[in-house]
Amino acid sequence: MIFMASTIYGKYTSKNDGVLRLVTYSRDRLGVCRTGFVVGDHIVDLNLGSRHFVENKGGKDLKGTCYSDAHAPTDMHKLIQAGPHAMDHVDEVFKHFSGMSESDLEKLAEKEGFVVKISDVILHAPLRPGKIIHTAGNFREHAKEGTAADWPFPIPEWISFLKNPDSVIGHDKVIEKPSFTKKLDHELEVAIIIGKKLKNARLDEAKEGIFGFTVFNDVTARDLQKEEMKNGLLNLGKNLDTFAPLGPTLVPYRYVKDPHNMTMELRVNDDPRQMGSTNKLSVKLEQIVERYSWVTLNPGDMISTGTISGVAAFRKPDPEPFFLKDGDFLDCEVEGLGKLRSYVKDAPSR
Question: Please, what is the end-to-end C-alpha distance for the chain in angstroms?
Fold first, then answer.
């Protein structure tokens, strides 16, 4: 099922706030994925927008397509790998286009073709992380609700496991509910995207090594998870296809005013289910990166924060009505990062 992009804005994310929101998009189901950035209700193609800027505003020393190909590549991994100098250029391009009116953007869309309405594109996950390190227990309210709900396994700080990058899906995509799970759950989290190679990083190095943040939903089959955790494992219950919605945008760290004070909310069919803030973290985001840099972290890798309270499994007195069902839709929002929408459908029978 293919959906053209719905709005990325929500209760805690507004238009024209001066925040650079990077996306990976395509024009149709057969289109090639390209990088872009959001301006109001439009997406500007990053590479072609850079070329337009260079030709019209950049000066003689920046002429030619090679500069834009190096500093504003069409692939998100390559952009992250290009480093701070590339992002300085992207900042200039973004400021140029974000200073335009909606009518000017409409004219560019008609004349040039590298500006397009959000509603006319498909938004993919901003990137497919090289590896995903999932952490848990960092929001202590989530651990406390687990204890109160008699969850049979402890949720101490610094739990970690690997998440399957093949389970990543983007904005407006379908979460497939397998027939063998009756307890499909949601976990709203912040995803930390690594911007430079890190190994055994100090705290200051860890902070400098963060490229930016996006919204992440750690979809979980609780019945599978319970069975696996009896043997000390955590695998299929969190790693099935479509179990990692990610997006809709990737916001560079330099555009996040305070990453430790971002409101978080997950809604199912417009009903608020998880509500919290990164100010409830028991550790700093850079401490999470520092901790897990015992394994080499590369540009484009992802580390999650763990979830806030309010998951279905810990609802009292009866969690059953809160598990995800065919036909549900979810809005996962983190302040400033955007609203990630997903649809739940029963997986096709085999």
Answer: 17
Query: Which token pair is 73?
Result: 């590549």
Chain centroid, CA 167 distance in Å: 13
**What pTM did the predictor assign?**
0.94
β pairing state of 122-124 and 132-136: unpaired
Q: With a cut of 80, say whether residue 4 has pLDDT above it.
A: no
The CATH fold of domain 22-123: SH3 type barrels. (2.30.30)
Domain ranges of the chain: 22-123, 127-346
Q: Is the pLDDT at 296 greater than 60, yes or no?
A: yes
Residue 320 DSSP code: G
DSSP letters for 258-306 = -TTS-EEEEEETTEEEEEEEGGGBSS-HHHHHHHHTTSPB-TT-EEE--
Q: Tokens standing for 21?
A: 């929101």
Pair type for strands 168-169 and 122-124: unpaired
Domain 127-346 class?
A: alpha beta
Q: Are 22 and 46 in contact (CB under 8 A)?
A: yes
Assigned token pair, 118: 């959000």
In whole angstroms, give the CA distance from residue 184 to residue 93.
Answer: 42
Q: Which residues lie across from 115 on neighbouring strands?
A: 44
**pLDDT, mean over the chain:** 91
Contact 68, 46 (CB under 8 A): no
Q: How far apart are CA 175 and CA 271, in angstroms?
A: 18
Q: How many CB atoms lie within 10 A of CB 306?
A: 26
Relative to beta strand 302-304, strand 132-136 is: parallel
Q: Which two tokens stand for residue 41?
A: 């209700």
Distance CA 185, CA 178 (A): 12
